[in-house]
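User: quick one, sequence for these tokens?
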């Protein structure tokens, strides 16, 4: 599908983020995830749907490519353009990231791209959003493959690599030079960067943290690159199923999605759902809210203020 994303005549552009669907063979519990996706899409009528990884429980799929085709069929029924990044579980089964990307690209509504072959990962790409007058890009959406597991013996999860960061900075500089200023931008990836811990521990956040943030043990400097580039206003991840908080760190809002899938662990009283993001043309800001499976929307999440820390001098 040709990228024809643009702001509406009312100046808005709406994204629905589904994360951690953990689809596995279309089992009965998967059908609850499908119903959620269709109901939220119907209610919100987004301009773009974004899947932020762990689309599949790859190791539990009899045929991972076929399981992903089942997800694609759901998205086709929803009827909106969509894009995606991979998580750490997607390619644990019978299909590689490249093979799964080929399945994604079979869809007429898919905007997912494999990205440059010379940098790590599959699915590093940028989508532009044109202004309502259809003349030029006025906003950017970055998609980053945050990998799976550490490639060294330190263990834990993978990190966004230096070559990916250099690619991001190059893309950002290109669009900034063309526009004469940094364009409002968002970034989507699966595994949270270490700064998600920092923003929760030391800044006011909104939402809940029911489990530990699980970033890589290496901080490769992606947040520093975001800060230096000056275009990204917010990042959106998944990975942890019972966290949904967001907080502002040095002018960038670090946001969790709301877990969508039923074929994975959750928490009683914490319904599945989606995060909705709305940009406004010409403004360096965005609105975000949750749309839950029970049909309710949560526009004001509870405030979390870190404890005051007292430092004493010797």
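Assistant:
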């Amino acid at each position: 599908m040709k990228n024809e994303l643009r702001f509406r005549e009312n100046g808005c552009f709406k994204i629905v983020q589904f994360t951690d669907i953990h689809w596995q063979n279309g089992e009965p519990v998967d059908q609850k995830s499908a119903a959620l996706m269709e109901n939220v899409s119907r209610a919100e009528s987004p301009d773009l749907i974004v899947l932020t990884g762990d689309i599949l429980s790859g190791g539990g799929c009899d045929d991972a490519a076929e399981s992903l085709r089942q997800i694609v069929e759901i998205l086709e029924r929803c009827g909106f353009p969509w894009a995606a990044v991979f998580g750490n579980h997607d390619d644990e089964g019978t299909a590689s990231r490249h093979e799964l990307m080929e399945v994604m690209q079979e869809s007429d509504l898919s905007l997912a791209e494999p990205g440059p072959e010379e940098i790590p990962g599959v699915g590093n790409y940028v989508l532009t959003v044109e202004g309502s007058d259809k003349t030029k890009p006025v906003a950017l959406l970055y998609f980053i493959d945050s990998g799976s597991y550490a490639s060294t013996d330190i263990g834990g999860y993978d990190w966004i690599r230096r070559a990916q960061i250099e690619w991001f900075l190059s893309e950002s500089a290109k669009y900034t030079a063309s526009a004469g200023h940094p364009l409002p931008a968002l970034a989507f990836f699966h595994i949270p960067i270490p700064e998600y811990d920092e923003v929760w521990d030391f800044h006011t956040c909104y939402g809940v943290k029911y489990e530990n943030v699980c970033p890589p043990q290496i901080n490769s400097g992606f947040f520093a690159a975001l800060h230096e580039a000056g275009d990204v206003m917010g990042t959106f991840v998944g990975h942890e199923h019972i966290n949904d908080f967001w907080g502002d760190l040095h002018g960038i809002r670090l946001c969790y999605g709301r877990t969508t899938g039923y074929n994975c662990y959750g928490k009683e009283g914490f319904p599945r759902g989606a995060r909705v993001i709305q940009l406004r043309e010409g403004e360096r800001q965005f609105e975000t809210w949750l749309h839950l499976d029970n049909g309710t929307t949560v526009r004001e999440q509870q405030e979390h203020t870190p404890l005051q820390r007292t430092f004493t001098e010797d």
